[in-house]
Amino acid sequence: MTAAEYLAAERLSDIRHEFFDGAIFAMAGASKAHNQISSNLVRVIGNALLDKSCNVYSSDMRVKSDRANKYSYPDVVATCKEVRFEGDAEDTLLNPLLIIEILSDSTEGYDRGDKFFH
């Protein structure tokens, strides 16, 4: 699958998928604890950045990594100053300043390994 085909399908999908080098992977749901940690981080980081030209996004903001030919949905993303998106839809962030992944038992190896590297 090409990146363009992935984006077209993803924008119509009810569930989120990550894309890596032509392959797509369905995203699993998160636990109560995972959601609470994510919500707290978005709130605390957002409050800390209120007086700055920064934005904080939750796990629904897709991020593109050109070098890895990858699209993913980090748990928390922040960017400052000029926010750049791929295309006009403003749903794929190109210049994150901060990416946070909340580890879980089932994804810790991938999150600390290949996902961190990408």
Note down, in words, how this protein is organized:
It contains four helices and eight strands, in the order αββαββββββαα. It has a single domain, classed as tt1808, chain A, CATH 3.90.1570. A five-stranded mixed β-sheet has the order 2-1-5-4-7, covered by helices on one side. The chain is α+β, with helices and mostly antiparallel strands and 118 residues long.
At CATH level 2, the architecture is Alpha-Beta Complex
Q: If you compute it from the alpha carbons, what radius of gyration comes out, rounded to the nearest whole angstrom?
A: 14 Å
What does the largest sheet look like?
Answer: 5 strands, mixed
CATH class: Alpha Beta
- Average pLDDT confidence is 90
Strand order of the largest sheet: 2-1-5-4-7
Measured as a percent range, the helix fraction is 25-40%
Fourth CATH level, the homologous superfamily: tt1808, chain A
Query: What's the number of extended β-strand segments?
Result: 8
Oligomer: single chain
Overall 3D form: globular
Low-pLDDT ranges? none
Number of helices: 4
Named CATH topology: tt1808, chain A
Strand content: 15-25%
Count of all domains = 1
Secondary-structure element pattern, one letter each: HEEHEEEEEEHH
Structural class by sheet pairing and helices: alpha+beta
N→C terminal distance:
19 Å
